[in-house]
Amino acid sequence: MTASTTRTGIVHLVERAPQLAGADMVAALVPPPQFADATFETYRADPAYPSQQEAKDLLLAFAGNGQPAKGGFFRKAKRPETKPGVYLDGGFGVGKTHLLAAIYHALPARRKYFGSFIEYTALVGALGYKNTVELFRGADLLCIDEFELDDPGDTMVMTRLLGELVSSGTRLAATSNTPPNALGEGRFAAQDFMREIHAMASSFQTIRIDGTDYRHRAVDGHAQVLTQPQYEAAVADAAASGLVSDDTFADLVSHLAKVHPSRYIRLIEGLSTVGMREVAPFSDQSAALRFVAFIDRVYDAELPIRATGVSLDLVFPEEMLAGGYRKKYLRAISRLVASTLA
């Protein structure tokens, strides 16, 4: 156990300026803590939505073809799939990431990687495209969680990267909240960009997973809001046994603009709780999207959030929720509610 995980007290995230080298990024390409032990056996399919069990069965077959064959690993094994990847499409909280991690753990691969879309694109930015291709060349499996299309350039880089890896035998597993052929529709009009999207989609077998968000099945859908005295007591209690951050919401949001999203994982390193004071609705979409990326890392690290001000599930105004990033905001709301109740 490192010193950073045993520290106690209060820190301010706005005073942190984390760095992340390429080697650190590669080492971090494993399932997040809450999915470190995820298996197909621990995935509980909701009987009210048959597609969940169907998806599980299909992915068991996909992973089953990963059993080592005579003369090599699963890349050389005979398998009935005609496509090198699976693409899990569904709403929030239906277990897509759990199943993605289950694939990662089930496949007996010598070289396999698990990361979010932003982690892979950040790696390309840190190492360069050519070096990233060489790094992953020969990998047995790449798992990509929450494939995003906010930047056409990033998407085309990933399309090109995946195409090169597939041609050399790498298998792919990805999640998103939108089917591959629909990615980018209504947001980007460039014909060349759409062609890239469709070319990438042809590499995947799309598996639909229906259902309700498990994080909302037993809650009222609202994030917990603390009074100032309650907040101070919660922060003091958390600081007695671990490291808790304490920042005003405005200061934190402003600071996120100075830190690359790929470094948000280091921003929260060593924390046991995240504290935010005086939460207020967003007026700037860029700031809102950075906050979404930050909350993804907080949620992956299983950190509880304590907050005052506006309920965190209300920070994205209606005009933002009605726009092209609606699904990202809804995912963040789902995670914010769960984190404040943890």
Task: Write up this protein.
This protein is an alpha/beta fold and 342 residues long. It folds into two domains: 3-20 and 215-341, Rossmann fold (3-Layer(aba) Sandwich), CATH 3.40.50; 47-211, P-loop containing nucleotide triphosphate hydrolases (Rossmann fold, 3-Layer(aba) Sandwich). Helix content is 42%, strand content 14%. The protein has helices spanning 3-6, 22-27, 50-64, 96-106, 117-127, 129-136, 152-167, 191-201, 228-241, 249-256, 264-267, 285-300, 318-321, 326-341, and strands at 9-11, 85-90, 112-116, 141-145, 171-176, 204-209, 243-248, 273-279, 305-309. Strands 3-4-5-2-6 form a five-stranded parallel beta sheet, sandwiched between helices. A four-stranded parallel beta sheet has the order 1-7-8-9. Strand 4, helix 7 (152-167) and strand 5 form a beta-alpha-beta unit. Helix 7 runs parallel beside helix 8 (191-201). The protein starts with a helix and ends with a helix. The model is unreliable at 1-5, 66-81 and 185-190 (pLDDT under 50). Keywords: ATP-binding, Cell cycle, Cell division, Nucleotide-binding. InterPro entries: ATPase_AFG1-like, P-loop_NTPase. This is Cell division protein ZapE.
SSE diagram, text form:
Layout lengths: L2 H4 L2 E3 L10 H6 L22 H15 L20 E6 L5 H11 L5 E5 H11 L1 H8 L4 E5 L6 H16 L3 E6 L14 H11 L2 E6 L18 H14 L1 E6 H8 L7 H4 L5 E7 L5 H16 L4 E5 L8 H4 L4 H16 L1
Parallel strand pairs: 1-7, 2-5, 2-6, 3-4, 4-5, 7-8, 8-9
- Report the CATH superfamily of the largest domain: P-loop containing nucleotide triphosphate hydrolases
CATH architecture of the largest domain: 3-Layer(aba) Sandwich
> What is the domain tally?
2
Q: Give the strand tally.
A: 9
- The CATH class of the largest domain is identified as Alpha Beta
Element pattern in H and E: HEHHEHEHHEHEHEHEHHEHEHH
- Average pLDDT taken over every residue: 84
Give Rg in angstroms. 20 Å
Number of helices: 14
CATH topology of the largest domain: Rossmann fold
Helix fraction bin: 40-55%
Q: Which regions have little confidence, pLDDT < 50, spanning 5+ residues? A: 1-5, 66-81, 185-190
C-alpha termini separation: 24 Å
